[in-house]
Amino acid sequence: MDAPGPALARDRELRARLAAGDEGALGEAYDLYSPLVYGLARRVTGDADAAGDVTQEVFVSLWERPLAFDPERGTLRTWLATLAHRRAVDWVRKESRHRRPPPIVEREGNGRPSIEEHVIEGELASGVRRGLHALPPPLREVLELAYYQGLTYREVAVALGIPEGTAKSRIRSALARLARDLEREGLTS
């Protein structure tokens, strides 16, 4: 896939200058393509800080390994966009692993969950999400900190600037209310 004449010539020149350690070439590439890289990363991650980090990683990668880009295979624009997309997807995957608690599923003899267990697990997760969103903000806030961020009730109290006893009682109240909601929906016994 050949790039148009002027773009191909510019890409070859930038690559040669980057390989020679010319910081000005990195500045030119950044000026030309950082809006594209940032915009793509922002769309994929949905997070401005993450998009900024991805953009930095992409241009550091270009600086450290300029010969990884081959102008005979495509444009620098396309190569940087592909790199940005991959890094952004990696960020999303990493974040989803950190935010999602591991599923608790009873296994059958073969160690794999049955289809029924997958369905039940999905329904329970949906019920928990609905119940969590239905909680008043003070109760929802303490549960999110305690369970999704793994904070102790003492750490929750510090994070929210409330007494430890208040944090503990809000967590207890939120869990009790969530349990009642799940039982009402028939998701627990």
Task: Describe this structure in a few short sentences.
The chain is mainly α and 189 residues long. It has helices spanning 5-19, 23-45, 48-64, 76-99, 115-134, 137-148, 153-160, 164-184.
Task: Please characterize this protein's 3D structure.
By secondary structure, the protein is an all-alpha fold. Helix content is 74%, strand content 0%. The protein is built from eight helices and no strands. Helix 3 (48-64) crosses helix 4 (76-99) and helix 5 crosses helix 8 (164-184). The longest helix has 24 residues, at 76-99. The protein is elongated. The mean pLDDT is 82.
Instruction: Name the helicity range.
Output: over 70%
State the helix count.
Answer: 8
Radius of gyration, whole Å:
25 Å
What is the CA-CA span between the terminal residues? Answer: 61 Å
Uncertain stretches? none
> How many extended strands?
0
For the biggest sheet, the summary is: none
Strand content: under 5%
Oligomeric state of the chains? single chain
Give the structural class: mainly alpha
The helix/strand series, from N terminus to C terminus, equals HHHHHHHH
Average pLDDT, to the nearest integer?
A: 82
The dominant shape is elongated
